[in-house]
Write a structure and sequence with these properties.
The complex is a heterodimer.
Chain A: H1 26-45, E1 49-52, H2 57-70, E2 78-83, H3 89-102, E3 106-110, H4 111-116, H5 133-143, E4 147-149, E5 166-169, E6 197-200, H6 208-218, E7 229-236, E8 239-241, E9 256-262, E10 273-275, H7 281-289, H8 295-299, H9 309-315
Parallel strand pairs in A: 1-2, 1-4, 2-3, 4-6
Antiparallel strand pairs in A: 5-6, 7-8, 7-9, 9-10
Helix pairs in contact in A: 1-2, 6-7
Chain B: H1 14-25, E1 29-36, H2 43-53, H3 59-71, H4 87-92, E2 99-104, E3 108-114, H5 122-130, E4 134-140, H6 147-158, E5 163-169, H7 178-195, E6 201-204, H8 233-239, H9 244-247, E7 252-259, E8 271-275, E9 280-282, E10 286-290, E11 295-303, E12 306-308, E13 310-312, E14 316-321, E15 332-335, E16 343-354, E17 364-370, E18 373-387, E19 392-395, E20 405-418, E21 429-434, E22 440-446
Parallel strand pairs in B: 1-3, 1-4, 4-5, 5-6
Antiparallel strand pairs in B: 2-3, 7-8, 7-15, 8-14, 9-13, 10-11, 10-15, 11-12, 11-14, 16-20, 16-22, 17-18, 17-21, 18-19, 18-20, 21-22
Helix pairs in contact in B: 5-6, 6-7
Classes of the chains: A alpha/beta, B alpha+beta.
């Protein structure tokens, strides 16, 4: 298999006319320092932490920061991928490349195994993002993970805006916003009863633009689909969908080849691409800083289900 | 704002691209702020206005609140809907929990903790204030200073939020009356002095029209407010100095963990990892670890950007020492010859804000987390609580109830190194944790940050 991972997308890329790699400003350094502190608390206070790694940009940044948190020691945290089975191949290649390069332990919870033995039922629309919850919780219980780090950000969604950095989940993974622990100073309290676990979000205070500025400053590797590329797509619900195991164009929908990129990585049945000519990190930053659409609004069908779609999934144990 | 639908293609103008390039080129600092106000002071509208007028609201979000406003029968777009995140909040028109919002200008990015106003949610104001470098307290000009205003200012003083701004809102509803503003501002300043906030800014605003929030002038400007020529709320927030103060305090770094790779590349590396809470550390400095008292010399500093000669408050670093000393999690690194040393205590007096719905019990067995140390402890309430109306300590029940601010004594199973909270917010604050369930019961502060009735010498 040929790797399509692009290791030199940063502004240091060889092409002429690109700006030098930008230095981190004070606001980015503060966000990085906070995330490192949070990750170190997890390493110090928990026995079996895991880091949710989807191959998306937020989890790539989270892993990058986590490695710095314990450097020069190897990261003592397993990577956990809840695999919808609806991945773009570039993302899986990227995941495997990162795992091999960092010599990480990778645990895969494949939604298809849960569908095959009936623990989870495929939805009529084929969308698998909501189906990730049960495999995630089962794997947390089986592996006895006591802390699960995720790259979720408060600016993504208004229910997530109310999430704590350390968030306690009951045995069913449920999130009850009314009984959240107050989080004071930067004294994090991850204590939990047996059967409960703690979700930890070190990038809580980052915005999409912060993530990209950090990717530029640190030359963080990403799957190639985050940059403009030609792809066969069709239009559905205002998004550009691409064919795959999750589906083909339906009646009245026609396939065409367009220059697109992905703003988020997720289940292929519900994650769309956007028109883009951004081939470098700098281009992407220029593009999103003038964008009029939020990343989830632009590219996630599952978040359009209702005003409270994310809140409902979080209450059931979703990330 | 123009809107886009359809394929999600963004139509942008050249001017917008230039503005974006300017934002990117700017080196921004970060400011964390808390916004507090009573139920009807228009807090959600003010936060919505800050987000909207700094162009931090994207078209799809704006469309969704426009639709929601119409469904609720409102002609105008209700900016408050931007910040109400949970289903129950939208249904009941209230804010339940702290919500974090993000907006930025070319000079600064802001992390805003939007905290609910009801008395029962004071614990959320405390939560938001604990990490804030600045506070905005809202007062409705029509009602003036309320019990909530007194409570919010007391919380900001208790938590020692470094900069406090009072926004006197709904000025449009009082025809921008200068006399009325002056009256309210004088009352606000009197309360602030009483709780120990001698220097605050007071700014007249209308969150509804946006006047003096982000822009002083503009098309929404009401000429009746021309008498105010001071800074807008955003200008005040952009002008706050956040970095230099902390870097000059005595050095403190709670040790989070010891990094020992024991790999072929790094067989002997042994570093103390932590985030500098205050002050500046340099290679060559002699440090002491407390409790314990071991001293050693700093031979290296590893930062996220690589090895460095010095690092300051706010940075996460790894400290290399000249000796193989026994130092680890739970200890605080300080300068061995530093002026103000932390106190190493096995019992302390402090103030707690009770955050749990379960009241305290006599001689309650709890856990205390201070810095990176968690110890078993016994908590005794002193029978003194802060009275918001009297603005003073008064005799109270022995039991602390939700939202009570009470004085306590804490006996600790092991010594901890702490500072007076008024000297250092990071090493002077502690959590009171339920030993059984793990819940956070109270926010504690070493010493007594609220000293009581107005002292003219302040």
């Amino acid at each position: 298999m040929t790797l399509t991972v692009d290791t030199d997308r940063g502004a240091t890329a060889g092409a002429a006319g690109r700006a030098p790699r930008p230095a981190m400003d004070a606001s980015l350094r503060a966000l990085e320092a906070e995330a490192i502190q949070v990750i170190r608390e997890v390493v110090a206070e928990f026995d079996r932490p895991a880091l949710l790694f989807s191959g998306g940009k937020d989890s790539a940044v989270l892993l990058h920061v986590a490695r710095k948190a314990t450097a020069p020691a190897p990261l003592p945290i397993a990577l956990l991928h809840v695999d919808t089975g609806h991945n773009l191949p570039e993302v899986l290649e990227f995941r495997d490349h990162v795992v091999a390069q960092g010599n990480h332990e990778l645990v895969v919870a494949a939604v298809e195994e849960w569908i095959a033995d009936g623990r989870v039922t495929e939805r009529p629309d084929g969308v698998r993002n909501p189906l990730q919850t049960v495999p995630l919780l089962d794997t947390i219980n089986e592996r006895r993970f006591d802390a699960v780090l995720g790259g979720a950000r408060r600016d993504e969604d208004r229910a997530r805006a109310k999430e704590r950095i350390f968030s306690i989940r009951d045995a069913f993974g449920g999130w009850d916003p009314r009984t959240q622990r107050p989080e004071l100073w930067n004294l994090y309290n991850g204590r939990h009863a047996p059967g409960e676990h703690t979700r930890v979000f070190p990038l809580s205070n980052w915005t999409e633009l912060d993530i990209w500025r950090y990717i530029a400053a640190e030359n963080v590797e990403l799957p190639s689909i985050y940059y403009a590329h030609e792809r066969p797509v069709w239009r559905r619900d205002g998004m550009w969908m691409t064919p795959g195991p999750w589906g083909e164009p339906g009646e009245g929908e026609t396939l065409e080849t367009r220059l697109v990129r992905y703003r988020t990585v997720g289940d292929g049945s519900s994650t769309g691409a956007v028109d883009s000519t951004a081939t470098t990190v700098a281009d992407v930053i220029a593009e999103i800083s003038v964008s009029r659409l939020t990343e989830r609004g632009a590219t996630r069908a599952d978040d359009r289900l209702s005003e409270a779609a994310m809140e409902d999934r979080k209450r059931e144990g979703y990330f | 704002m123009t809107t886009t639908t359809g394929t999600g293609v963004d139509e942008t103008t050249e001017a917008e691209r230039e503005a974006a390039a300017e934002v990117l080129a700017a080196a921004r600092s970060e400011l964390r702020l808390v916004v507090a106000g009573s139920v009807d002071d228009g807090k959600s509208t003010l936060v919505g206005r800050l987000l909207f007028d700094t162009k931090s609201i994207l078209a799809d979000t704006y469309e969704s609140i426009t639709d929601a406003s119409r469904r609720r029968g409102s002609e105008d777009v209700d900016l408050a809907l931007l910040t109400d995140g949970l289903r129950a909040e939208r249904e009941q028109g209230i804010t339940i929990d702290v919500a974090y919002r993000y907006f930025s200008t070319p000079r600064r990015s802001f992390v805003l903790a939007d905290t609910p106003g009801h008395t029962q949610y004071t614990r959320n104001t405390v939560t938001g204030a604990s990490t804030a470098q600045a506070a905005v307290v809202l007062v409705d000009v029509r009602h003036g200073v309320s019990v909530q205003t007194r409570r919010h200012l007391a919380v900001m003083a208790l938590l020692r939020v470094p900069s406090v701004i009072v926004a006197v809102n709904k000025m449009d509803a009082q025809a921008w009356s200068r006399a009325r503003f002056d009256e309210v501002a004088a009352d606000v300043r009197a309360v602030a002095r009483n709780v120990g906030l001698p220097e605050i800014d007071v700014v007249p605003v209308s969150a509804l029209t946006g006047q003096n929030v982000v822009d002083g002038g503009g098309e929404r400007h009401d000429a009746a407010g021309d008498w105010y020529s001071g800074a807008t709320l955003l200008e005040l927030l952009e002008g706050i100095d956040v970095t230099s103060r902390a870097a000059h305090e005595p050095f403190r770094m709670p040790v989070q963990l010891v990094i020992r790779p024991r790999t072929p590349e790094h067989p002997d590396y042994r570093g103390l990892a932590g985030r500098i809470a205050a002050g500046t550390l340099r290679v060559g400095d002699v440090v002491r670890a407390l409790p314990g008292g071991t001293t050693s010399t700093v031979t290296g500093l590893d930062t996220p950007a690589g090895p460095a000669q010095e690092a300051a408050a706010g940075e996460s670093v790894t400290v290399l020492l000249s000796d193989e000393v026994d130092v680890g999690r739970g200890q605080v690194l300080v300068h061995a010859d530093g002026e103000r040393q932390p106190r190493v205590l096995d019992s302390l007096d402090g103030v707690v804000c009770w955050l749990s719905e379960k009241p305290s019990t006599p001689n309650q067995r709890v856990l205390v987390k201070a810095g990176t140390k968690v110890v078993r402890a016994m908590l005794t309430t002193s029978g003194q609580a802060w009275d918001v109306d009297a603005q003073d300590w008064v005799a109270s029940d022995e039991q602390a109830q939700l939202n009570d601010i009470v004085r306590v004594g804490v006996r600790l199973a092991e010594s901890v190194a702490v500072d007076e909270y008024t000297d250092d917010r990071h090493t002077g604050g502690f959590l009171v944790i339920d030993a059984a369930g793990g819940a956070t019961l109270a926010a504690g502060m070493v010493g007594n940050p609220l000293t009581g009735r107005f002292d003219p010498s302040i």
